[in-house]
Amino acid sequence: MTDDAPVVAAQFEMPGWSEENATALLGFIEKVGDEGLFARDYNPDALAAAILANDQAKLDTLATDTFLLLATHLRDGRTPNAARKQWFMTDSDGENEPLLALLTAALGAGTVAETLASLNPVHPDFAVLRAALKRAKTAADAQAIRVNMERWRWMPRDLGERYVVSNVPEYLTRVVHGGTVIATHKAVVGKKSTPTPQLNPMATGIIVNPNWTLPRSIINEGIGATIARNPAAARAQGYTWTGSGKTLSVVQKPGPNNALGVMKMEMLNEHAIYLHDTPSKNAFNAAARAFSHGCIRTERALHFSGLMAVMFAGRSPEEFGEAIASGKTTRFGFDQPFPVYVAYWTVVPDGKGGVKKLADLYERDAPVVASFARPGRPAATIIAPVPPPVVPTVDTAARVTTPGTSGIY
């Protein structure tokens, strides 16, 4: 999780604001409620006064600061990191869309409002939420929509050409290619006591007939005791182990009892969260499917893993079928790794042009709503790099060493 106010080193001179550009900024601020933000954050009265005051230096400073703060909130979200519970997304929008360059271009072209509007997420679901905000009938409905517009801004503005997205409150995983959802699978997500975090690791491959290396928390929950009391029963379930007590390391071999089932999506991340199959198929029949230790169990795992192997690893259906039938652990590496977004939207499109509210499984909405009553995250602090020292030119011919001196001047 990055700092709320990163420090950016840049060559920066205060730009000049024309009355037309400043007025366009003011006009955008006055309608910024349509974007799920709050005009009060950007002090429109002070900006209006600066436009009328005929004080160019003051206008340049105030308008620049206001633009950068507003652009930060539009691009990265208003919500401070402390209110983003279990959010570990990485977002490269800061590198891809540096605000100083956008500001310079907008002032030169007279496109301040258009440039700000361009910072909105490009996914059509965001546009549905934005439209729904205008139609919200109650303050609570409006707040819920704002929370989820914010969550879109915490993510990369463009999710990419191909990706997998699991929306935890929806208990669904979707495969997206070329902007089209090509597969949808029911998902089992983390229990309230072991919630699934929000993150976006890169998927690098699909593993069929995987081994399962048990995390310490699950060893402590029961299998460690089973190994100590009844090792034969543990072996019958496919477990092998080394060490004992605090040094106990446990692996479950591939097979019908393996907790990962027939496949595991390879997603490198420090939280050890990944998509996988499960032998407990009945869990997919429940409406609310929060049963896991944090990983995401995936319905119709053979279909999911076969799609991954054929479309993204370049394998034939026959190769995939043979690997499954062999019972051996096989990895199909993806030609081009792609992101898996483990997201948390509690208001989503309903498929009819409107939106629907989902249960806030982990109670993550309230901290975001509470943050709306406080100042939002600040814009990046911009500093000018220290220029290199100027080395004076020395006329060596004029240098004379006299007796009794060190020869150093």
UniProtKB/TrEMBL annotation:
Pathway: Cell wall biogenesis; peptidoglycan biosynthesis. PROSITE patterns: LD_TPASE. One of its GO terms (biological process) is cell wall organization. Residues 162-320 form the L,D-TPase catalytic domain. Keywords: Cell shape, Cell wall biogenesis/degradation, Peptidoglycan synthesis, Transferase. This is L,D-TPase catalytic domain-containing protein. It holds the Pfam family Scaffold. The active site is at H276, C295. InterPro entries: LD-transpeptidase_YkuD-like (IPR052905), LD_TPept_cat_dom (IPR005490), LD_TPept_scaffold_dom (IPR045380), Transpep_catalytic_dom (IPR038063). GO terms for molecular function: carboxypeptidase activity; transferase activity. Belongs to the YkuD family. It comes from Sphingopyxis alaskensis (strain DSM 13593 / LMG 18877 / RB2256) (Sphingomonas alaskensis).
